[in-house]
What does this fold into?
Amino acid sequence: MPGSRSAKRLLFLIVGLLLGLYLSLGGFFCPDWGWAQTSFEQGLAAYQAGQYQSAIAHWQTALTNADGIEQEATIRGNLAIAYYETGQYQQAIEANQTAIAQFTSLNQPAAVGQVQSNLGNVYEALGTYGRAIEMYKSALEIAQQSGNRVSEGISLGNLGYLYFLQGERSQALAAYAESLAIAEETGDREGAGHRYFNLAIAYHAVNDFPLARETYQRSLTIAREIGHLTLQAKALSSLGMVEADQGDIDGAIAYYEASLQISEQIANPELRARLLNNFGHALLAANRLDEAAAQLRSAIAYMASLRDNLGDRESVAIFDTQIYTYNLLTQILVAQDKAEAALEVAEAGRAQAFSQLLLSRLSRTEGLENPEPRTFAIADMQQLAQQTNTTLVEYALVPEADFRVIGRQRGRTSDIHIWVIQPDGHVSFRQRHIAPEDDQLDELVQRSRQTLGIGGRGIGVVASANEETSAQALEHIYQLLVAPIEDLLPADPTAEVVFVPQESLYLVPFTALIDNQGDYLIQHHTVMTAPSLQVLALIQQDSLEAAQSAPSTQNALIVGNPTMPVVWDPIIETTAALAPLPGAETEALQIANQLNTQALTGDTASEVIVKSRMATASIIHFATHGLLEYGQPAESGIRDVPGAIALAPSDDQDGLLTSAEILNELSLNAELVVLSACDTGRGEITGDGVNGLARAFLGTGAQNVVVSLWAVPDAPTAELMVHFYDELAQGQNQAQAMRSAMLSTLGQHPNPRDWAAFTLMGQP
It folds into this structure.
């Protein structure tokens, strides 16, 4: 009986969003709006009753009857709040942005600040915390300049919660205290209720259960006094978590049932999903597994609805806040000995935005619009393994039992779930426990990278690498990830194995893991990676369709050591040109000779020329610098999607081919893209996979992408790539060719840092 497994618990601490509502402030109500006023008032009444869809309908009517920009901006601001409450985040963003522009044109900074605060709420719900903080800080500055104490308190409370989400608890508590003092000073009862709620979350997070209970109760009391249904539901659910933490499961369930009953009066899918998650957790603790699974499946359905109509970037961000509900349901199914059903949920809990990106691409080629997400069932996974004659290995990381999920934070891994689908379709399940006294998995992965002595392409290799420590770390990771499934892997070393990592496992150099005999994994297996099995299947489908229209003759685009662009250098705090890479140029010239084409180097490797040739190339090879952080607003302030490839600049192009440009501007038909540069396989690790260059190339039509997991050394990389293309010319497939190239390079450069950085992603 899996009773010990059923004790595993995850907690969602439901956040108290501190909405700077026009409704509660009343600052924009206009006494003489004619027909617009009637509809506006009807919308207010509907909103206050929790009838958000009705409020939206009334306010949309008011918008059509609005007289002038100020009325339009006011109505749009309120519409944005209702869109937010109903989980229509894209519409909320657009309405808020339009309202900000209109109030700015009217020179009404106080109104701009209030709308910015509400827009920050939307970004926070999506998990895009950098944007949320930007909005909150701007709103705070405007409130302070205008002397609007209520708005100042709201903005401070919002900022406090963002600080808390990012682990800055002392800053969060200071902001909460100041915000609460302002709420009490101004008589803002709703604001005080939210502040007490967020303070309670902070106490709860450090296991001060008596103070958390008392503070949640204060929030609940205020919520009942003012008739705030959403805050009542959140406070009741959180009190249920306190009771569950104290071992009173029956008391916890009673609180959850009360919160769910209230939430039925509110059309808020995000709130409903969180409450159902918490209820499922309590039912799991009570060993009522079937009921727990049912509640969690309902929560997942609500979460999926929140991703409707979002752009790719927003879908990635919000999914990163949702993955633990999938994780919890997976644990329940494992506890019920339903390993295959658990695998289906584990698959659904990863790379959904990536899958939708690929599905949209496929649908466009078929002349379809707005494709519906497809369920990827166990039969589909078995068919994939059989059709590709590949062994598929999927991992899921289970956090420790007492971890409380807050936003995008991650817990310490206590168990690793592993599924193996063999080429005949047989599914096996194994698991590996990590005891509390053992090394944390994330730290072990980071240590393995640090002790490899990783340097950068063109700048040499760190000489202080501790080979013994590196080997020990790689052996330890092997014991956690591969040893439990050794007997399920193919005996033929040329048979392909596709690993599907999760979270920190994306940084693991699987090829360099060391077994009990001291051999590297690459010596016994041909290795690939993928963000999910569904992504793998969609790439496979895309490649089959692309093959029908692919060029009949090989058309290779080889780029090496372009004239380097100028970028911001954080070390010297100024702009500077990237260092040239003579080894990369030699690599490009040799590979171009192998493929009977001309390499683009120096000024000829301009961004303009490279982009113009990429659409028709069957092989694309970049031997240049890769910029891991470029495109992250927090780092560069430029774009949303991390990652860029250095090319030669020209008058109208900066010489940086970014992930965003690849996704938004290009359509590829390449069988292979090789990113022979630093850190091209890295990026922003999310619940959707690694958001970076590899995802961008696969998402825009490449069938296979070779990327690097660290800053690769120049000379050994050139040797490895020349070997790789030699093996391709001799008829090996891409995975087998990479294995042969690694083994050849290993003979000359035995340290894994020199040959193990590269991984092949894409079609088996």
Remarks:
- The chain has a mean pLDDT of 82.
